[in-house]
Amino acid sequence: MTPKEILRILEGVRKQVLSPDQAAEKLRHLPHRDLGFARVDTHRQLRCGFPEVIFCQGKTTAQIRDIARVLLSHNGNLLATRADRKAWLAIRKLDRRAEWHERARCITVRQEVMEPRPGEILVVTAGTGDIPVAEEALVTASIMGHKVEGLYDVGIAGIHRILRETERLAKASVVIVCAGMEGALPGVVAALIRRPVIAVPTSIGYGASFGGVAPLLTMLNSCAAGIGVVNIDNGFGAGYLASLIAQGASGAT
Amino acid sequence: MTPKEILRILEGVRKQVLSPDQAAEKLRHLPHRDLGFARVDTHRQLRCGFPEVIFCQGKTTAQIRDIARVLLSHNGNLLATRADRKAWLAIRKLDRRAEWHERARCITVRQEVMEPRPGEILVVTAGTGDIPVAEEALVTASIMGHKVEGLYDVGIAGIHRILRETERLAKASVVIVCAGMEGALPGVVAALIRRPVIAVPTSIGYGASFGGVAPLLTMLNSCAAGIGVVNIDNGFGAGYLASLIAQGASGAT
Amino acid sequence: MTPKEILRILEGVRKQVLSPDQAAEKLRHLPHRDLGFARVDTHRQLRCGFPEVIFCQGKTTAQIRDIARVLLSHNGNLLATRADRKAWLAIRKLDRRAEWHERARCITVRQEVMEPRPGEILVVTAGTGDIPVAEEALVTASIMGHKVEGLYDVGIAGIHRILRETERLAKASVVIVCAGMEGALPGVVAALIRRPVIAVPTSIGYGASFGGVAPLLTMLNSCAAGIGVVNIDNGFGAGYLASLIAQGASGAT
Amino acid sequence: MTPKEILRILEGVRKQVLSPDQAAEKLRHLPHRDLGFARVDTHRQLRCGFPEVIFCQGKTTAQIRDIARVLLSHNGNLLATRADRKAWLAIRKLDRRAEWHERARCITVRQEVMEPRPGEILVVTAGTGDIPVAEEALVTASIMGHKVEGLYDVGIAGIHRILRETERLAKASVVIVCAGMEGALPGVVAALIRRPVIAVPTSIGYGASFGGVAPLLTMLNSCAAGIGVVNIDNGFGAGYLASLIAQGASGAT
Amino acid sequence: MTPKEILRILEGVRKQVLSPDQAAEKLRHLPHRDLGFARVDTHRQLRCGFPEVIFCQGKTTAQIRDIARVLLSHNGNLLATRADRKAWLAIRKLDRRAEWHERARCITVRQEVMEPRPGEILVVTAGTGDIPVAEEALVTASIMGHKVEGLYDVGIAGIHRILRETERLAKASVVIVCAGMEGALPGVVAALIRRPVIAVPTSIGYGASFGGVAPLLTMLNSCAAGIGVVNIDNGFGAGYLASLIAQGASGAT
Amino acid sequence: MTPKEILRILEGVRKQVLSPDQAAEKLRHLPHRDLGFARVDTHRQLRCGFPEVIFCQGKTTAQIRDIARVLLSHNGNLLATRADRKAWLAIRKLDRRAEWHERARCITVRQEVMEPRPGEILVVTAGTGDIPVAEEALVTASIMGHKVEGLYDVGIAGIHRILRETERLAKASVVIVCAGMEGALPGVVAALIRRPVIAVPTSIGYGASFGGVAPLLTMLNSCAAGIGVVNIDNGFGAGYLASLIAQGASGAT
Amino acid sequence: MTPKEILRILEGVRKQVLSPDQAAEKLRHLPHRDLGFARVDTHRQLRCGFPEVIFCQGKTTAQIRDIARVLLSHNGNLLATRADRKAWLAIRKLDRRAEWHERARCITVRQEVMEPRPGEILVVTAGTGDIPVAEEALVTASIMGHKVEGLYDVGIAGIHRILRETERLAKASVVIVCAGMEGALPGVVAALIRRPVIAVPTSIGYGASFGGVAPLLTMLNSCAAGIGVVNIDNGFGAGYLASLIAQGASGAT
Amino acid sequence: MTPKEILRILEGVRKQVLSPDQAAEKLRHLPHRDLGFARVDTHRQLRCGFPEVIFCQGKTTAQIRDIARVLLSHNGNLLATRADRKAWLAIRKLDRRAEWHERARCITVRQEVMEPRPGEILVVTAGTGDIPVAEEALVTASIMGHKVEGLYDVGIAGIHRILRETERLAKASVVIVCAGMEGALPGVVAALIRRPVIAVPTSIGYGASFGGVAPLLTMLNSCAAGIGVVNIDNGFGAGYLASLIAQGASGAT
Asked: What is the third-level CATH fold of A120-250?
């Protein structure tokens, strides 16, 4: 509901094309569909540049399907995260193009053909165990229209692995770094380049990693600047933020 | 020490302009000045796009001054954070242009005349008490060459204050949001725009805010996507990250 | 055992209707039934306005059934929370009117026909995943005699969803707001209305939500006033408190 | 900015008393005064029933004074919490009626003569050390127009002290209970009466009380229902919530 | 290895009944049996008044059986805690008298006929869910020779339940109080009597009880004195400590 | 207010020595003196065996003095903990016998001549820094009538120091062990003797001792049984509990 | 990639045996094999003295097998930790010598015949439940070429068990001590000997042991010096560190 | 009190040079001096290789002086940590050779001329603020007879600073790494060399570093093996452990 729309409605009232009641009704018109258990935010693409994403955890398969149906009816691309196979099967009944990204636990439906957005997003992991989180980021940024690449298992226990990739890191528009255990890799990467780094702590580890708290604290306390941190295991959030940053980099509005 | 430099040195060896020992020496040549208590990273501008910044907390005034002298001798701009008045007086003896930003607790010296970088950075606070952190972000992004503006005391206790600024928020390249207590403002802002939001939890609050832990957790758990979080009270980190994002947005390399 | 009752017993002694021993016995008479494993508080309706509620977690089905039998024999309404289907089947054998509220995991038996208590209680959720907690609150306030309505999935990621409901919020006697993840919704609601808000953090979320700690802290630190917080996932406590508040609002004693 | 106001503005447009631009301007008209460092929410009384309250912690005396000046110019009552003597002296220069509540660390200015609101609020403390928090609640509810009484030092180490006050507790519309250390008193009070209890954990204690965390957890986990919890030491929040509850109880709108 | 034994060995050396090497051997003689995976402390009865107790958690059934065999061969009573049915079946093969206490998850074998130790131990619970922990305490103190009674479900949500038992509480030598959720009962009990109270926090509860941390903190911060706290769910430790206290009370050595 | 007293009052009513109103008055008669800011529990000696103790932290000197005056007027012994010199000077004006225990930060007034209670209490510290806490325990148990001795700086870094004192430990009725840092001493002591051990974690230490949390956890998790734990730095609570245990040991009622 | 290698490559360039491009290529030559999901660090033996170890947790069996194949092709010894039986079966297909250490959850393949390294490593546990962690340490140090022995169940609840082993402790080059619950044993051991002690907290325990946090804090706060702590349950890390220490002790380079 | 001494005493008894009572007395002879507030462990040098070290925090200057006097009378070297200038002045009165290490807050007295122990200890810091902790380690290892060097401010924000020192790191017998903030440096160092690394988290940082918790967790979770961690800011413990390791490396016993 942008200021322009408000002005247009007011203009309609002045021209007596709309009665005040009709105008009030329009202003009241909800930019979401109410399913009882969910109010699907159908205007989010206008407002934020991408349709509402379905966070499947804590929802029944039927709820996921019903939300997906509303979103698909608006012709945007669809992304569902933290999904299981059953959710995918349900969505595939709605649209045969539904893809299942098993490692990332994501479902995507591409309805809209987008011209590739400029700028490359690089998704880096410290270890092999961090890959599912990285893939969630990768799928997210891909469905949002970006070229994304993965660079996996380059943690600091073999520091030369990441140092040798400095040029590749430097060429990306934005770098996502996923790391569990001690979580030191984002700081090392940020110190090597002049691009924004998105740090994703993962719950990989044991004992005093406390389910990802240790790498989260490491990343927040990094002495290298240029790092924004997201929630533990939040690959989606990292991919989404990377997309917003890269869109800016490519002059998109 | 970029790959191009390595290649150039190797070329020098092949052309016998450099002996292998000289080349090894050059490769060994440290891109920092060793002051005993500090190794000043004089190549950081090349590597990361901005000179090393002096984090004054835990350093003596003499140490701060000595590090500043090395940095100033490389003709870049200087930024010192978490500084006190005494540090400023010491640096002003080295360079009369040294400025003291009291609320932000920062010292800056502008040696380099930069053409303004495109894109605007907006620094938002939830309350009045968050302003010092916001000013640290503002000073940081300014010395890095950006146009920065402040938008203060628009927290969610009066939600219309921020809603009325939606257009202004939407026009920024990147928005920094500083909030203490419950820390909900960054999530509200991110849900209104399609630009990256940098969230800075502040230690403003009492009791169960635990010195900024409460807003930190709020920001990490935001259900709105597009948010990168920095450490509690880390205005500098937010300003720095915003600069990197905005530089990308303006096509800078 | 109110002061009036004490005076009446003393009066009986003076009039020699009661011997001192009988009086002592009466004073000793326990307002609870001892089942060995449980002392069912049969006077709680007199004292607190509603019979004891069965918290099923940690109790065997046989224990739940035995407690229910005692409570039902006092003709009040029965509420059992955190129940499973087996507990319901056991209670239904005692009284065919036993209802099973699956999403809320509650069992109710309405023995007493109550005239509806004035005032409406509104139960709001930030997301779909918060609904089971909301339903526990809804069932609780309903069995206590209130008109209760639900307003679901109006979290701050689409802030206009809640803003458009401001009038409806304002008409309620008391508003319960259930939210997980960042838990910012209760603060937004409280800032919009002049009614008490009961905030219920839920364990919906992952990573740094720490099983509901993040929204709990958010709600405790809310910069909007007028909020009382209950335990994580404690829909029952919210419904009960809402009832007490609404009873006051309707002049009940 | 209520729906009625919107309708009235739209009506003005239809009647051509207002041009669309004027109407847009009106809709844009900010219900707050911008002081640069603060946006004083001058419509909060309309929206929430009481003017904005000045939370002095983290503000300079000059900032407090400037905010107070704006608020006083709207003729409402003024409340400033977590204030020191200097803030009081500054506000007294604006209005000679400014009162200083030392124990509660509050400043009040009564500009508006209110008819006393019905219903009594009782503020209870477990110990002597909890009294400053209780007084903050008491001053808050008083300036909001209520009859408030204190009942101090009736903690459970001498359980008969509170039991003997059961009738007095039962007569209040709402009871605020402030307790540090183990924080068990609110649960005991809630189990005795059928009125809402607002529990305020205080930072009184040492060692494993962790600055009020122990009583906070106790209150959140209370097995007696009917309790809403506020932040540690948040007497203001308790007084404010009590006022909203008591207003409902008295039929106020 | 008491001082008397040392003196006796030394006397043997002087009288040349023992060679120095034999004496050294005796001094080296281990008061435990080494099973490779366990060193069974067979002198603990002499030292501490009760044989080593088998903590079954983390041990295989075979390990439990082998340790039990060694202990039984010393003719003391046997107690195994946190045991499952399989462990009981294995021990019953060693000694048919082995008893299985299912609720308490304990196994006992009474080999030694003890004259009952004076003094009564009372085990109190706040709720029904705390009973398994209470039973572990009860079984422990029983096998150690005490008269123990249970008093269950007298938590503070119905405060009169415990107040009516004041005399019974006062007659015990020591009172064990098990409570989860808010854990306030031990403080109330301690304030009523002049006997030591052993407080056992239990993991009964949810949300902000954090698996027993909430009642643990409550108990540690109790404003009533005379309370010693044991680990969460540590019924055994409470029963053992109660026995030591009661033994002292009965003049035992 | 024991059952016997109730019966006696009832008997008075039956014999018409008391009117019902007088009896009700008597039952209402408060066993505490209300000072406004404090309700001094003057019956605690009857109920718990020792008068109310003044916890000075958070009280003004005037409040401490007023409470002391009430307590002294009942002729019992007086103990004030966490006191400063000013409190002592104020109490000394009330009674010249007031003693100041500087290291323990305690004030005592002995009004009552007690025959020494049998049984010895031993107070042990791991280090020199733990002595102030130990002295608080020592002063407390002394004023309660016990023979108390100190055994200081016998921590496990020189394990033979405590082993050589085994006999002395074994002769005590109860042993209090104060330890900071790692807090392992109580477990070692409990494993050597058959007497109850009261463990007092102290805040001595730095870094990961977290103000006493580390020794607190150590003590709660001790694999040696027979230990009751009190709050961090709670010497008073330890001394009080030790007295209750020793009184039982000596057959006192 | 040692300095000598760099010099040799440069020498090759000078002698025109290598073109600058070839040299650059060589410098770029990665000392790891890229499997897509893993970059196997094949130079770690050169750099750190032992090949990369496979941490199996979070890896699929196929990933483990593929990494093992690369490592085995370099003829070093292989160690895989936190492995299950399926991983062992997969590796045994690659090399029949693969051994399965069930208690330690480790797989080893000895390809290299090492002369035994001097110095003995002693692995001590406080209880029986700590043995799996101890075995992980033992297997690790063994495959690294050391003589290792275990000394189990000598915790401080029977302090003489460890005291009697003082000589054996003193003869080891380095002692690893694994302890859960209170975790006091490493401090006792360190106080008895002049050798480095590696402390391993284990997750054995319940309640306030918080999955190993309690012994971790105990070990970090030990008042005996000479202790290095590793992560909870990190037997591998302890065995590895012990090997590095013992190698130094034996003069290895 | 070694086994040999026991045997010698027993031999004396057999030869009737010692009576059993004399022998018992000798066995009882305390290897410490009792000052009342402290039991100075005068045999620690025999047992652990270095005399008792005075931890000054929490001790009065008089106590420090008295302990120092006992230790100096045994002719060993003296080390006092966490000392202030006043403690130094007091010790200098006992021995003019007392040295004051201001940055390290240590006092040393060298009474014993030691031949330098072989092996070099390298003390590394990530930043300038970590130097005081590093100096405590350096002073400790020096007084224990080692050659120690410092290498400061080589944190990962300029990763080439530490990479260029790889050879120097590799030549040390053991490397101590002190780091605050994110604490990632020890992991990077351990991955570069085959020597033991001792990691010291420091309290340098702010916000989510939680006084050193963040680097502590980082170090415990390091994916590079070969690291032992000590308490936050525990430079002494690191220096002591390094000495024990280096002594082993040099074949000392």
From this structure: Rossmann fold (3.40.50)
